[in-house]
Amino acid sequence: MRRIVVALALALIAWTDPAQAREETVGTLTVRGRPTPLTVGVATVQSDPDDENQSWLVILVSDVPVVEADRRPARLAELAAAGKLKAVRILWKEGFDTVYATPYEQSLSQSGRRGEEHPTISLDRYDGERFEGSVKSKMMGQEWFFQAHLNVPLGHGGIVEVEPPSAEEQPAGSSDEKTAKKRALARMGYEYSLEMFEQALQDANVEAVKTFLAAGMLANTAAVSDRQPLMLAVSQCAYEHEAEATEMVKVLLAAGAKVEAGAKNGITPLLHAAQYCKGIEIVTMLLAAGANVNTKAPGGATPLMFAKIFGKTEIEQALRKAGARE
Predict the structure, then answer these.
(1) Which of 20, 119, 254, 257 has the CB geometry, 3.0–4.6 Å to 137, for a possible disulfide?
(2) Strands (E), the chain
(3) Which domain holds residue 33?
(4) CB contact at 8 A, 118 and 101
(5) Same structural domain for residues 136 and 246?
(6) Over its length of 326 residues, how does the chain's per-residue pLDDT go in tens digits?
(7) Dmax of the chain from CA atoms?
(8) Rounded to an integer, what distance in angstroms lies between the CA atom of residue 275 and that of residue 288?
(9) Burial environment of residue 199 by CB neighbours within 10 A (0 to 12, 13 to 18, 19 or more)
(10) CB contact burial 85-101 (16+ within 10 A = b; e otherwise)
(11) Residue 210: CATH number of its domain
């Protein structure tokens, strides 16, 4: 029996977890054509500071080991400025297309500030225990780029810190107004993307919505029907943001938003307005833009029915004047 116990003990000592045996970080940070091997990586899941139910994957790849206390952006910037490390910190907002990458390298003026180009990330394994996958940025048109493959344990805990964008002001002499608008969005906390455009509409942030449109965002997007910009704007009436909704509808229509945008099974912005808005202005703008006054919801309800049900006399009168039928 003693021999069996000893044999089992020796077998346990000799056995290693295959995943642990494969643990590795292989990557490169290239700055102005000079590559630096990135051989140390850590991955952690952290919480969003504004939404405890939203998580971020935080990946740090570096040329030297970095203790946990030194992994905060401010400390990484100090170490990079002193020439003590070269690293890239990557953030992925779980469930979204939002991916940021920030270089930490002494010779880069944007060290400690996330790049304008967003990297790609692959999740070969991401199960709560380990992260295995690749991250990489564009390899052309910028001073720096990187690539890395990791197979590392996955840590948990902490609140994510998102680095500021790389350019807070428009470069001297630049005449690119759209670029300036995108940087203005960054200062407001919005990335120039469809996802963030939708977020600005849901935030009822009129200034941001105007800036998105000025930066080139289309008033009719590739989003699914119920997330079309005009639908999202009108829906803000339901959340006590009618004044902001009115301004957003005005600028969207001026930018070419289709008045029936989002129509699915009869659901249109006018139906939303008749149901959720208290005032008459949004309904009037939609009618003036050619909205179908007798459109029907899936259950057969029309804008006029909603106005009558919710006692909205002014809206009812406007609808009747535009030809609404019982």
Answers:
(1) 119
(2) 24-31, 34-38, 40-47, 55-62, 87-93, 99-104, 120-126, 130-136, 144-159
(3) 19-159
(4) yes
(5) no
(6) 444 333 433 344 344 444 444 689 999 999 988 999 999 999 999 998 888 889 999 999 999 999 999 999 999 999 999 999 999 999 999 988 889 999 999 998 889 988 766 789 999 999 989 999 999 987 655 788 999 999 999 999 999 999 887 654 334 434 368 888 888 998 899 998 999 999 999 999 999 999 999 998 999 987 888 889 999 999 999 999 999 999 999 999 999 999 998 787 778 999 999 999 999 999 999 999 999 999 998 888 999 999 999 999 999 999 999 999 87
(7) 97
(8) 18
(9) middle
(10) bbbbbbbbbeeeebbbb
(11) 1.25.40.20
Q: Tell me the CA distances in angstroms from 175 to 116, 169, 192, 217, one per residue in order.
A: 18, 13, 19, 19
CA distance 282 to 228: 16
Q: Say whether both 25 and 130 belong to one domain.
A: yes
What values do phi and psi take at 264, rounded to 5? -145, 120
What is the Cβ-side half-sphere exposure of residue 286, based on CA atoms within 13 angstroms? Answer: 33
Same domain flag for 64 and 143: yes
315 plus 194 within the same structural domain: yes
- Residue 41 lies inside a defined structural domain of this protein: yes
Counted domains in the chain: 2
- Asked whether residue 169 is domain-assigned, the answer is no
d(CA 99, CA 96): 8
pLDDT for 17 equals 47
Whether 314 is covered by a domain: the verdict is: yes
Number of Cα atoms under 13 Å in the Cβ half of residue 297? 14
In a domain, 208, yes or no: yes
- The residue written with tokens 């292989």 in the block is 26
* Ordered DSSP codes for 16-44: --HHHHT-EEEEEEEETTEEEEE-EEEEE
CA 26, CA 313: separation in Å to the nearest integer?
68
Q: Are the C-beta atoms of residues 289 and 281 closer than 8 Å to each other?
A: no
